[in-house]
Amino acid sequence: MGKNIAIIILLGLIGFFGYFLFNKQDRPAEGEPALVQRVKQKVSVVIYSSNSCRYCLMAKDFMGKKGIQFDVRDVNIGKNAREMSERTNGSRAIPQIFINHKHIGGWTELNRLEQKGLLDLMLAG
Question: Can you list the domains of the chain with their CATH numbers?
Answer without folding.
Answer: 28-123 (3.40.30.10)
